[in-house]
């Protein structure tokens, strides 16, 4: 196959182009990507990252925020109540909002697919606790081993414990009627 036209040609270097200035201006314009909305709204683009975070009461370096003591625990010096270089927090509402958001309970968004739920219910309904028989069933399309099927059933039990109990309770009368 022939090469693409113009690929083997040597490219000319432009001596008149100042690449340093182009690179600096592109970096200066780029603002940091901030994920937290509270920080994004309180951010001042005219200040540095360190200044912005200090105003919000946050730290840019975790090692400076919680320094590792170099002296043994019992040998601490007493201070006169003032710490040198203490920065004033001008935007405490940012930290307060972040703490409030972190204290909210997290929603459980874990769910199983409808196909897996139907598969597990079918297997339990037709085979009970016999996992070897489940592995030989014609509906076992993915050719799961007995241990894999057992694991899927246990996942279903853990995700939907009430639904599983109701399902098992509904199966017991059916088996009694058959005998």
Global geometry: flat
What is the strand content? under 5%
Q: List the secondary-structure elements in sequence, H or E.
A: HHHHHHHHH
Number of helices: 9
- Mean pLDDT comes to 81
Radius of gyration: 32 Å
Q: What is the structural class?
A: mainly alpha
Largest sheet geometry: none
Number of strands: 0
C-alpha end-to-end distance? 76 Å
Low-confidence segments, given as residue ranges, are: none
Helicity level: 40-55%
What does this structure look like?
With 179 residues, the protein is mainly alpha-helical. Among the domains are: 19-65 and 87-103, no CATH class; 114-171. It contains 9 helices and no strands. The chain has helices at residues 19-29, 37-42, 49-56, 62-65, 92-103, 114-127, 131-135, 146-159, 161-178. The longest helix has 18 residues, at 161-178. 5% of the residues are buried. The mean pLDDT is 81. Keywords: Nucleus. This is Nucleolar protein 16. Belongs to the NOP16 family. One of its GO terms (biological process) is ribosomal large subunit biogenesis. It comes from Smithornis capensis.
